[in-house]
Amino acid sequence: MAATGAYAGQGVVVTGAGGGIGAALARRFAAEGARVVVNDLDPAKAAAVAAGIGGDALALPGDASGIAEPAREALGGTVDVYCANAGLGSPGDAFAAEEVWEAAWDTNVMAHVRAARALLPHWLERGRGRFVSTVSAAGLLTMIGAAPYSVTKHGALAFAEWLSLTYRHRGVDVHAICPQGVRTDMLTAAGTAGELVLAPTAITPEAVADALFDGMAEGTFLILPHPEAAAYYATRATDPDRWLGSMNHLQQKWENG
Q1: Are 18 and 10 in contact (CB under 8 A)?
Q2: For residue 113, is it within any domain?
Q3: How confident is the prediction along the chain (257 residues), in pLDDT tens digits per residue?
Q4: Which own/partner contact pairs does 59-68 have at CB distance under 8 Å and 24+ positions apart?
Q5: Which residues of 184-211 are buried (b: 16+ CB within 10 A; e: fewer)?
Q6: Residue 246 falls inside a structural domain
Q7: Which end of the chain is more exposed for a tag (fewer CB within 10 A), N or C?
Q8: Is residue 1 a part of any domain in this protein?
Q9: For the chain, how many structural domains are there in total?
Q10: In three state form, how does the secondary structure of 147-208 look?
Q11: Tell me: the pLDDT tens digits for 84-122?
Q12: Would you say the pTM of this structure is higher than 0.85?
């Protein structure tokens, strides 16, 4: 029986799909009829998600920075949608080790750049392609206790914006997903800062997938699974001192336990 759904027959790649948001995206695309490549650094996790999806799903473990071209080959030469979802929630301040900063930059920004390099020639030739960047509200705002994460997520958003403004008239659709807290292992790893800032309004990975699909249907670039993030973003832009004062209050609350 032929696949049915909004993305029937399309080739979709989801990085960091061994759990959390990535797994939810992979399952949702598969439910919409897509042929999904499930990528994760952990081969067992990638295989488990692909097996759970069944059908045409394919596990392709490895570093997200170099997966775009092998995934395109695995899909028979065509990637219709690329979800740059793999990310590092690196904690630390300005004194975090160079290796922490480098790893965050490589995964949260350069993996997106490398994927775009591999995919854009094909997308521009045929006049169609879709790039989905899982950014985080930290890319719009910031996150206390996580300088490498916050800074590189700002970079991920900037790159997604650049892709959109440069190529949208040539058929390339770009979406930046910017949730606040999501009930994943990354939230757990955020420790007390995550409990203070993110946990009270945390949503499920499936709710993030729902927000993405609504945004894709509407042609929306900035996708906010937590709508209140728009007001925070507006305050940050129009009254930065007020916003910084509010965030510093949270910082002090976190420091004082």
Answers
A1: no
A2: yes
A3: 446 688 999 999 999 999 999 999 999 999 999 999 999 999 999 999 999 999 889 999 999 999 999 999 999 999 999 999 999 999 999 999 999 999 999 999 999 999 999 999 999 999 999 999 999 999 999 999 999 999 999 999 999 999 999 999 999 999 999 999 998 888 787 788 888 888 888 999 999 999 999 999 999 999 999 999 999 999 999 999 999 999 999 999 999 97
A4: 63/111, 64/15, 64/16, 64/39, 64/107, 64/111, 64/115, 65/106, 65/107, 65/110, 65/111, 65/114, 66/114, 67/13, 67/15, 67/39, 67/115, 68/13, 68/114, 68/115, 68/118, 68/119
A5: bebbeebeebbebbbbeebbebbbbbeb
A6: no
A7: N
A8: no
A9: 1
A10: HHHHHHHHHHHHHHHHHHHHHHHHCEEEEEECCCCECCHHHHHCHHHHHHHCHHHCECHHHH
A11: 999 999 999 999 999 999 999 999 999 999 999 999 999
A12: yes
- Residues 34, 12: contact at Cβ < 8 Å? yes
Catalytic position from the list 7, 82, 149, 232:
149
Q: Mapping DSSP to helix (H, G, I), strand (E, B) and coil, where does residue 237 land?
A: helix
What range defines the domain where residue 206 resides?
A: 11-228
Active site residue 149: yes
CATH number of the domain that 175 lies in?
Answer: 3.40.50.720
Burial of residue 89 (number of CB atoms within 10 Å: 0-12, 13-18, 19+): buried
Is residue 20 in a domain? yes
